[in-house]
Write a structure and sequence with these properties.
- The chain is mostly beta strands and 129 residues long.
- The chain has strands spanning 4-7, 10-13, 18-24, 33-39, 46-52, 58-60, 68-73, 78-83, 92-99, 118-119, 123-128.
- It is globular and about 40 Å long.
């Protein structure tokens, strides 16, 4: 079973920035699409952003568009989520996910949890005022 490992979470003040990383344990890992979600206690996972493996297409939730940026470093085989102008409501556990089965489908499908096959364990982000 492929493992994804998130890092970069922590405590930040309102208006600050964080960059989350997600790396696969296997060096040969590849996927069609990778995404970021977050979850707060008592609620389901919220889609944030997704990117194709080549990095050519990105897709964002309206709630984070303009503040969050998803990207991939092919050489490091690492997925990133740059988060700027953080707000208290961004406090959550953040998860990365990967779609390793075909088909790749389209952007609107990427918002669904069920689209993804592999998940990381999550990293906590806390934004304090």
């Amino acid at each position: 079973q492929v493992q994804l490992v998130e890092s970069g979470g922590g405590l930040v003040q309102t208006g600050g920035s964080l960059r989350l990383s997600c790396t696969a344990a296997e060096r040969t890992f590849s996927a069609y699409v990778m995404g970021w979600f977050r979850q707060v206690p008592g609620k389901g996972r919220e889609f944030l952003a997704a990117i194709t493996w080549t990095g050519s297409i990105t897709y964002y939730a309206d709630s984070v568009k303009g503040r969050f940026t998803i990207s991939r470093d092919d050489a490091k085989n690492t997925l990133y989520l740059q988060m700027n102008n953080l707000k208290s409501e961004d406090t959550a556990i953040y998860y990365c996910a990967a779609r390793v089965r075909s088909p790749m489908s389209s952007g609107s499908t990427w918002k669904s949890e069920s689209f993804y096959d592999v998940w990381g364990q999550g990293t906590q982000v806390t934004v304090s005022s």
